[in-house]
C-alpha cells in the first residue's frame, strides 16, 4: 500500500477496513510479531535470510520466544551475529503502522499514552492528523556503556522544554522522554547489557514485568507497548559487569548463540560477509584457500594458547579472506596478470588480520602473537591438505628435494614466472587434479594450487621451507620468522 493511499486523519483511520479501532486498539507489538511470524511459518518463508548456521539451533528458540510473547536475550561470544539477528526482527512487523502525528512516543491513535496526544484528540476529534511508521522506524537500539543514565533510557525533567513552551515545570508536557519511551510500539534492543550500570538495569524492572515505566519526578505511568531484546557476552558478567539477578529473572527466554558448527557453515558465512569481488582485475578464490582461511578460526578456537573466554570472532576469517584477496590483487596489478588468485603466501601476508583478533593466554603471550598466528596458518594448511591428498602418492615431489633440489619463489612474481619454477619439479603440476583442476586452468590458478601442495608437504614436515626477506633456506627445515632487513619476501623450499 502506497503512503498517499493511507488514512491521514483519525476519522479516515476509523473508517478503513484494515486499521479500524477493533483491529488496532488492543493489538500489542508482541501480538503483531506473533501474528506475522505465524503467517511466515505457514507459508514456509525464510525467517532470517543471511543468518547462516542457526537454522536448527538458535532460530527455533527465537521463534519460540516470539510465539510466547517473551522479551529475550541472545547470549554468546563476540562475532556470533547477535546484533544482525535482532535487527532482522523488524521483518516480522507490519509494513506500516499509524500513530498520532507529532507524538514523541508514537502514540496509538486508539490508545494514546501521552498528554500531548490525549489533548490533540480531545481538541480535534476525527480531524486529528495521523502519521505512519515504517518497519525500520520502529526499531531502536542502544549500545550499553557505563555512562548511560536513567534520563537517557527512561526520561527526566526538562526545564528548558518547559520554559520554551510556557508550561509549568510540573506539567507532563515538560517531560524529556528517553530512548525506551521513544521506542513505544516497536522493538527496543540493548547491546552488551552487562555494561549497563546496575541502577540503570533496575530502572528496566517495571517495563519487563508490569509493562510500564515511571518518569522521574512525575506521578504518571506510561504503559509502553514494546518488545525488549538484549545481547550479552557471558564472559562479560565478571570481566566488565553483570546482569542483575532480578532483571535476568524477568527476561522470558535466554538464547545461546554459537560459532559455526561446521567448516562448511563457516565458509558460507565468510563468503557472504566478505568483500572479494574487486574491480580492476578479475579475482578468483580457490575452494581450498577458503577452507584454509576458515580452518584458522576453527583451530584458534581449539588452541590452548588462545583465550577461549574471549572467543574468536567470525570476523577473523572474513578479515583474513579480504586481506588475502587484496594481497593477490596487489601482486596481479604489479605483475600485469589478468587474474588475481590467492596463494598460500598471501595467508602469511594477512597475519595482521589474525593477530589483532585473538586474545592470548600466558603461553601464547610468551610465544608472541605473530608466532601463534603462523602456527595456526601452517596447521590449517596441513589439515586441508590432508583432506585432499590423504592416500595420494607425492613421493616424486619430495624426492626432488631429497636429491638436493630447491625452489625459490618470489611472492611478487607473476603467475607465469612462478610456473617456470614449478615445472622443475616433475609431476607437481599433475597433482593439482586432486583439487578438481585441469590442465586448461589459467596460470594463476595452477600456480596457486601447486604452491598449496608444497606448503602442505611442509606443514606435514616432509619438506623444509624458510620464509625470510631475501635470504636462503633454513637448513634446519623449520619456519623462521621474517627479519626486518628490507627486500622482497621469498619462499624457499628444500
Task: Report on the architecture of this protein.
By secondary structure, the chain is an alpha/beta fold. The protein folds into two domains: 29-68 and 71-93 and 135-256, P-loop containing nucleotide triphosphate hydrolases (Rossmann fold), CATH 3.40.50; 263-493, no CATH class. Helices cover 41% and strands 12% of the residues. The strands form five sheets. A five-stranded parallel sheet has the order 4-7-8-1-9.
Give the low-pLDDT segments: 469-488
In whole angstroms, the N-to-C terminal distance is 70 Å
Major β-sheet annotation: 5 strands, parallel
User: How would you classify the helix and strand content by structural class?
Assistant: alpha/beta
With strands numbered from the N-terminus, the spatial order across the biggest sheet is: 4-7-8-1-9
Count up the domains.
2
Task: State the helix count.
Answer: 23
Radius of gyration: 30 Å
Amino acid at each position: 500500500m502506497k503512503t498517499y493511499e493511507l488514512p491521514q486523519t483519525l476519522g479516515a483511520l476509523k473508517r478503513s477496513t484494515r486499521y479500524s479501532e477493533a483491529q488496532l486498539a488492543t493489538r500489542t507489538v508482541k501480538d503483531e510479531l506473533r501474528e506475522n511470524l505465524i503467517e511466515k511459518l505457514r507459508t514456509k518463508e525464510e525467517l532470517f535470510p543471511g543468518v547462516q548456521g542457526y537454522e536448527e539451533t538458535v532460530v527455533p528458540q527465537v521463534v519460540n520466544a516470539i510465539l510466547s510473547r517473551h522479551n529475550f536475550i541472545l547470549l554468546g561470544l563476540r562475532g556470533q551475529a547477535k546484533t544482525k539477528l535482532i535487527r532482522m526482527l523488524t521483518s516480522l512487523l507490519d509494513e506500516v503502522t499509524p500513530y498520532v502525528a507529532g507524538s514523541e512516543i508514537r502514540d496509538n491513535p486508539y490508545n494514546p499514552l501521552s498528554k500531548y496526544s490525549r489533548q490533540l484528540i480531545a481538541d480535534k476529534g476525527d480531524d486529528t492528523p495521523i502519521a505512519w511508521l515504517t518497519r525500520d522506524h520502529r526499531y531502536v537500539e542502544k549500545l550499553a556503556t557505563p555512562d548511560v543514565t536513567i534520563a537517557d533510557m527512561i526520561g527526566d525533567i526538562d526545564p528548558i522544554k518547559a520554559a520554551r513552551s510556557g508550561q509549568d515545570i510540573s506539567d507532563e508536557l515538560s517531560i524529556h522522554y528517553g530512548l525506551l519511551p521513544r521506542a513505544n510500539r516497536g522493538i527496543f534492543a540493548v547491546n552488551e547489557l552487562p555494561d549497563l550500570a546496575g541502577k540503570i538495569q533496575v530502572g528496566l524492572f517495571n517495563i519487563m514485568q508490569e509493562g510500564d515505566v515511571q518518569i522521574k519526578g512525575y506521578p504518571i505511568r506510561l504503559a509502553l507497548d514494546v518488545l525488549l531484546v538484549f545481547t550479552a557476552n557471558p564472559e562479560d558478567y565478571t570481566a566488565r559487569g553483570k546482569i542483575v539477578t532480578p532483571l535476568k529473572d524477568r527476561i522470558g527466554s535466554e538464547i545461546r548463540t554459537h560459532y559455526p558448527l561446521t567448516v562448511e557453515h563457516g565458509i558460507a558465512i565468510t563468503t557472504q560477509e566478505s568483500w572479494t569481488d574487486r574491480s580492476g582485475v578479475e579475482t578468483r578464490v580457490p575452494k581450498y584457500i577458503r577452507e584454509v582461511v576458515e580452518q584458522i578460526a576453527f583451530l584458534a578456537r581449539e588452541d590452548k594458547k588462545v583465550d577461549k573466554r574471549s572467543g574468536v570472532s567470525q570476523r577473523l576469517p572474513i578479515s583474513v579472506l579480504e586481506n588475502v584477496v587484496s594481497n593477490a590483487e596487489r601482486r596481479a596489478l604489479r605483475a600485469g596478470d589478468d587474474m588475481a588468485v590467492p596463494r598460500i603466501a598471501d595467508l602469511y601476508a594477512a597475519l595482521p588480520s589474525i593477530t589483532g583478533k585473538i586474545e592470548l593466554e600466558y603461553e601464547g603471550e610468551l610465544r608472541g602473537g605473530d608466532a601463534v598466528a603462523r602456527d595456526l596458518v601452517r596447521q590449517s594448511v596441513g589439515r586441508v591438505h590432508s583432506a585432499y591428498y590423504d592416500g595420494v602418492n607425492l613421493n616424486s615431489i619430495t624426492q626432488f628435494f631429497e636429491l638436493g633440489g630447491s625452489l625459490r619463489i618470489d611472492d611478487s612474481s607473476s603467475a607465469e614466472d612462478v610456473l617456470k619454477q614449478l615445472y622443475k619439479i616433475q609431476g607437481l603440476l599433475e597433482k593439482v587434479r586432486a583439487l578438481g583442476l585441469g590442465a586448461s586452468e589459467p596460470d594463476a590458478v595452477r600456480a596457486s594450487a601447486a604452491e598449496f601442495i608444497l606448503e602442505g608437504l611442509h606443514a606435514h614436515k616432509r619438506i623444509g621451507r624458510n620464509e625470510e626477506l631475501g635470504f636462503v633456506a633454513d637448513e634446519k627445515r623449520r619456519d623462521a620468522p621474517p627479519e626486518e632487513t628490507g627486500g622482497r619476501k621469498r619462499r624457499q623450499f628444500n
